[in-house]
Amino acid sequence: MTAAGEVRAAFTDPVSNRECELVIPPGGQVYPQPGEAKTGVAHPGCPAIADLEIGLDAFWCPACGWNGRVSGAWAHDVIRAAAQVTP
Ligand SMILES: [Zn+2]
User: Fold this and answer.
1) What is the rounded distance in angstroms from the CA atom of residue 18 to the CA atom of residue 27?
2) Which of 35, 42, 67, 82 meets the CB 3.0–4.6 Å disulfide criterion with 7?
3) Do 23 and 40 meet the contact criterion of CB atoms below 8 Å apart?
4) What whole-number distance in Å separates Cα of residue 34 and Cα of residue 87?
5) DSSP 8-state class, residue 32
6) What is the distance between the alpha carbons of residues 79 and 32, in angstroms, rounded to a whole number?
7) pLDDT of the residue at 64
8) Cα separations (Å) of 77 from 47, 56, 74?
9) How far apart are CA 2 and CA 55, in angstroms?
10) Residue boundaries of the structural domains of the chain
11) Over pLDDT 70: what percentage of the chain?
């Protein structure tokens, strides 16, 4: 399910070699304050959105324990580009 205005960017997690998606809701923050939308990572077989640790080139899901790797520089570029198209 994709909400209006949500940006999704697929990448391959090099740890699991599975395809994951960077999910950026409108106004999504990497480190949201209460009430703000959260940018995170969708991953196979789990309904939760994993926490993005952009400075560590990693993401982690507290629901299923998925520990993956993602380029923080790439994620930053995608998030910045998404921010320019969402009001
Ligand atoms: Zn999970």
Assistant:
1) 27
2) 82
3) yes
4) 20
5) P
6) 13
7) 98
8) 25, 15, 5
9) 27
10) 49-87
11) 91
Ligand 1 geometric centre to CA of 83 (Å): 25
* C-alpha of residue 31 to centroid of ligand 1, in Å: 18
Residue 1's pLDDT is what?
47
The Cα 16–Cα 81 span in angstroms is 27
d(CA 42, CA 10): 9
* pLDDT per position as a tens digit, 31-73: 889 999 999 999 999 999 999 999 999 999 999 999 999 999 9
Q: Which residues contact 21 (CB under 8 A, 6 or more apart)?
A: 8, 9, 10, 11, 41, 42, 43
Residue 55 burial (CB < 10 Å; 0-12/13-18/19+)? exposed
Ligand 1 centroid distance, CA of 85 (Å): 28
pTM over 0.70: yes
